Amino acid sequence: MDLAKAAPKVFRAIIGLDAAARAGLDPALVELIQIRASHLNHCAYCLHMHTNDARKAGESEDRLHMVAVWREARHFFTPKEQAALALTEAVTLVADGGVPDTVYAEAAAHFGDQELAQVLSLILTINTWNRVALATGKVAGTDERTA
Q1: Are the beta carbons of 77 and 63 closer than 8 angstroms?
Q2: HSE, side-chain direction, 13 A CA sphere, residue 44
Q3: Contact criterion met (CB below 8 Å) for 107 and 119
Q4: Contacts of 41 (CB under 8 A, 6+ apart)
Q5: Burial of 42 (0-12, 13-18, 19+ CB in 10 A)
Q6: pLDDT, position 147
Q7: CB under 8 Å to 69, separation ≥6 — which residues?
Q8: 74 touches 109 (CB < 8 A)
Q9: Rounded to whole angstroms, how far apart are CA atoms 104 and 99?
Q10: What is the 8-class DSSP label of residue 94?
Q11: Taking Cα atoms as reference points, which of 119, 132, 93 lies closest to residue 28?
């Protein structure tokens, strides 16, 4: 199914949420969050799209390869990026035990309220996109966005 055609108002609303969520955030951080959530959700379509977007934005291959194992390769990521990745994991896997207070506190230590709200909104948005792509059978390598 093509959700954009079948439910255009819903699709446009998700696009609006996505744009609002990423507003003011560092583009590199945006891609790291989207990549990590896509790993956890096994969304090959979004993972392919966001790793390509990250490359186009100047992200290094080394960091892209390390996102999935960021805890074991912390030296590739700033403490702020690590806090965002930990929050991404906790929110994405929320059914496995909620968002631990320590994870939230670490994120709050690195982000002000407004930026933390943006990060959280971005995490919610990429999880929505992952579910759309998985539920509608999107195929990795077929990025359908228009320029």
Answers
A1: yes
A2: 7
A3: yes
A4: 92, 127, 130, 131, 134
A5: exposed
A6: 42
A7: none
A8: no
A9: 7
A10: G
A11: 119
Here the tokens at position 102 are 């320590």
DSSP character for 82? Answer: H
Least Cα distance to 54 among 75, 36, 72 occurs for 36
Q: Which structure tokens are listed for 139?
A: 């195929």
Determine the Cα–Cα distance for residues 26 and 81; give it in Å rounded to an integer: 10
- Please work out, in degrees rounded to the nearest 5, the angle formed at the alpha carbon of residue 116 by the alpha carbons of 113 and 120: 135
Block residue for tokens 């093509």: 2
Say if residue 146's pLDDT is above 70. no
Contact 87, 99 (CB under 8 A): yes
Q: What is the pLDDT of residues 45-70, one digit of tens each?
A: 999 999 999 999 999 999 999 999 99
Nearest partner of 61 among 52, 69, 73, 74, judged by Cα: 52
